[in-house]
């Protein structure tokens, strides 16, 4: 075809087809998974790549997994090179050899052949309920090396030339406790990549390989131009911010710092994490892949949301992260909690820095994840279970013109995390949900307030349940921040009320054993506010009070709105006096 461009309608059709292929891969996983982490919460990502390893399209159900897919494929391609044949299927979860986010995320990659050559790759990646070792749903707060976090799987062929490699499959399954669940979800990942293969080959048969390749080239080029155009809208300069994590689980008196300096020069942007703390003993260390993915997440949520997520969008982004730091850890540092704790801290630092440059497009901090993973034996169905308590989601931060979303969840998921149905949750886990509702006064005040946090309580109905709160944000310093005059909410609070009435603080990064009759209570923070709370619409404050989201006391103290407790009407004279006095 030479230099002739594709017909723009055909290019658009193919672009949408690429993205629909990723969605079909994801829908396959939702319908075939055995784990509620996949089927209920959608903790996975799908993507397709060309033969060069360039990302064509993806479906980031969990956003922080998406930016790491190119790293993972790079690790696989470096391992196998030309040692690939039609029908090969490759598995890895290794954070170092496989360039993965962290160990619980199993990545399955399938090279797709057209004739004798690899033309494409289909990848599916998702969090497993059990990765072996001493962890709880993959999280081990006592791990001081990656070998203690689970079974390490370097890039290895699950299928060779289409033939099932039972030895590898059995090796993986015999190193976990919940074989049935992992077996099903491995098949789920493999099946998703098969769907990707079938759909891509159908596209090739309809349009021919050269046309598809040209469409990919033009798509990536157009996306790069779009991304550079958006970066050019950010004023040139250097913008610095820092945020902290509660601790690493070992030195509980020391917070861990993430510092970033963002440099914008024309259509290029650099994220320099020089000044961040060295890697630590506990599992909050972040791999380079996870840090880059976190940076992409923060940037994509600030610029035009219509930018397509492919290799072109990544080209203008440069990452500087010193090896051996908490944002670019070296083997064998543990790193399982990085996708939760460190990702949130990275995103917050990036947003706080960008708010100096483009406050009209920035948003206040979201609530950090503060809830446990639990696993054990469920006497209701006489089987092992493993689950992450995804019902406990905090609020999103506000932005100019909009309140934050209520009960949206951890920033790692960018709103893509779905809450399990409480009744289904009780069917597969030995728990009874006692309270699940918005937490009054949990949102950060602002002209546009943060999203609401959650009050979540459940009773344990079995003995010997292992629990690990792998979250963060239980200190004033790590609570969500407000911007442009907005305020942050109170930090999250957790407690366990034992069956005998004793009260215990589960903290974070610590194993706790739960027994029958124990109550677990979580008061999850909301998001940060944007703008002066005294400028918030009086009618909106009144609505929040009438809906039980804000108390009358908070309405008066935080928003300057006085409400008569008898009539539930606004006392406008007292309100104007109070607001004018501020």
Rg, Å, rounded: 24 Å
Per the principal axes of the C-alpha atoms, what is the gross shape? globular
Count the E strands: 20
Task: Please give the largest β-sheet.
Answer: 7 strands, antiparallel
The N- and C-terminal alpha carbons lie at a distance of: 68 Å
Q: What proportion of the residues is helical, as a percent range?
A: 25-40%
| Strand order in the largest sheet | 2-1-5-4-3-6-7
Mean pLDDT: 94
Share of β-strand residues: 15-25%
Number of domains: 3
Q: What are the low-pLDDT stretches, counting only 5+ consecutive residues below 50?
A: none
Question: In terms of quaternary structure, what is this?
Answer: single chain
The computed structural class is alpha+beta
Number of helices: 14
Which helices and strands appear, and what pairs or packs with what?
Blueprint: H1 8-32, H2 36-39, E1 44-50, E2 55-59, H3 63-66, H4 69-80, E3 89-92, E4 105-114, E5 117-127, E6 156-160, E7 163-164, H5 166-173, H6 179-207, H7 209-231, E8 237-245, E9 256-265, E10 268-272, H8 288-300, H9 311-314, E11 317-320, H10 341-354, E12 372-378, E13 383-388, H11 422-428, E14 431-438, E15 454-460, E16 465-469, E17 493-497, E18 503-504, E19 511-514, E20 519-523, H12 538-546, H13 552-559, H14 572-581
Parallel strand pairs: 10-11
Antiparallel strand pairs: 1-2, 1-5, 3-4, 3-6, 4-5, 6-7, 8-9, 9-10, 12-13, 12-16, 14-15, 15-20, 16-19, 17-18, 17-20
Helix pairs in contact: 1-6, 1-7, 6-7, 8-10
Could you describe the 3D structure shown?
The structure is a single chain. The chain is an alpha+beta fold. It has three domains: 8-225, no CATH class; 235-534, no CATH class; 538-581, no CATH class. The protein is built from 14 helices and 20 strands. The protein has helices spanning 8-32, 36-39, 63-66, 69-80, 166-173, 179-207, 209-231, 288-300, 311-314, 341-354, 422-428, 538-546, 552-559, 572-581; strands spanning 44-50, 55-59, 89-92, 105-114, 117-127, 156-160, 163-164, 237-245, 256-265, 268-272, 317-320, 372-378, 383-388, 431-438, 454-460, 465-469, 493-497, 503-504, 511-514, 519-523. Strands 2-1-5-4-3-6-7 form a seven-stranded antiparallel β-sheet, sandwiched between helices. A hairpin with a 4-residue loop joins strand 1 and strand 2 (55-59). The longest helix has 29 residues, at 179-207. The N and C termini lie far apart (68 Å).
């Amino acid at each position: 075809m030479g230099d002739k461009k594709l017909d723009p309608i055909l290019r658009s059709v193919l672009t949408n087809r690429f993205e629909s292929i990723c969605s079909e891969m994801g829908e396959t996983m939702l319908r075939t998974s055995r784990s509620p982490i996949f089927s209920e919460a959608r903790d996975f990502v799908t993507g397709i790549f060309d033969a060069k390893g360039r990302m064509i399209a993806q479906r980031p159900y969990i956003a922080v997994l998406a930016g790491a897919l190119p790293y993972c494929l790079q690790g696989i391609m470096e391992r196998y090179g030309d040692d690939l044949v039609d029908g090969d299927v490759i598995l890895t979860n290794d954070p170092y050899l496989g360039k993965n986010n962290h160990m619980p995320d199993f990545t399955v990659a399938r090279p797709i052949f057209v004739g004798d050559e690899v033309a494409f790759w289909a990848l599916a990646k998702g969090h497993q309920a059990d990765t072996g070792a001493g962890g709880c749903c993959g999280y081990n707060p006592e791990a001081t090396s990656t070998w203690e976090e689970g079974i390490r799987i370097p890039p290895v062929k699950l299928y060779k030339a289409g033939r099932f490699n039972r030895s590898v499959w059995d090796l993986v399954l015999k190193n976990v406790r919940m074989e049935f669940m992992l077996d099903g979800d491995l098949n789920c990942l493999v099946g998703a990549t098969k769907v990707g293969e079938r759909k891509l080959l159908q596209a090739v048969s309809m349009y021919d390989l050269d046309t598809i390749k040209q469409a990919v080239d033009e798509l990536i080029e157009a996306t790069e131009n779009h991304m550079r155009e958006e970066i050019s809208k950010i004023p040139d300069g250097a913008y610095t911010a820092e945020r902290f994590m509660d601790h690493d689980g070992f030195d509980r008196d020391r917070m861990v710092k993430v510092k970033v300096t963002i440099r914008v020069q024309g259509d290029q942007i650099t994220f320099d994490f020089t000044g961040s703390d060295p890697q630590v003993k506990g599992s909050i260390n972040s791999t380079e892949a996870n840090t880059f993915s976190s940076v992409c997440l923060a940037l994509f949520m600030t610029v035009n949301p219509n930018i397509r997520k492919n290799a072109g969008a990544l080209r203008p982004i440069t990452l500087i992260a010193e090896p051996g730091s908490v944002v670019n850890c070296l083997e064998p540092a543990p790193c399982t909690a990085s996708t939760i704790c460190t990702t949130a801290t990275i995103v917050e630092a990036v947003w706080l820095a960008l708010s100096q440059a483009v406050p009209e497009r920035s948003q206040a901090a979201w609530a950090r994840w503060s809830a446990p993973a639990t696993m054990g034996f469920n006497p209701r169905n006489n089987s092992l279970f493993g689950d992450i308590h995804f019902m406990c989601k905090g609020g999103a931060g506000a932005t100019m013109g909009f309140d934050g979303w209520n009960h949206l969840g951890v920033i790692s998921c960018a709103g893509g995390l779905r809450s399990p149905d409480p009744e289904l949750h009780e069917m597969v886990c030995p728990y009874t949900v006692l309270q699940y509702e918005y937490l009054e006064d949990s949102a950060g005040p602002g002209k546009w307030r943060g999203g609401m946090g959650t009050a979540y309580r459940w009773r344990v109905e079995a003995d010997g349940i292992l629990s690990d709160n792998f979250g963060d944000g239980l200190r004033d310093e790590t609570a969500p921040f407000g911007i442009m005059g907005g305020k942050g909410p109170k930090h999250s609070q957790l407690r366990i009320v034992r069956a005998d009435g004793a009260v215990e603080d589960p903290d974070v990064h610590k194993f706790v054993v739960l027994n029958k009759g124990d109550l677990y209570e979580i008061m999850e923070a909301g998001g940060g506010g944007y703008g002066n709370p005294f400028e918030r619409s009086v009618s909106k404050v009144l609505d929040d009070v009438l809906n039980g989201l804000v108390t009358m006391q908070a309405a008066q103290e935080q928003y300057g709105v006085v409400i008569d407790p008898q009539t539930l009407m606004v006392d406008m004279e007292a309100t104007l006096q109070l607001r004018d006095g501020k």
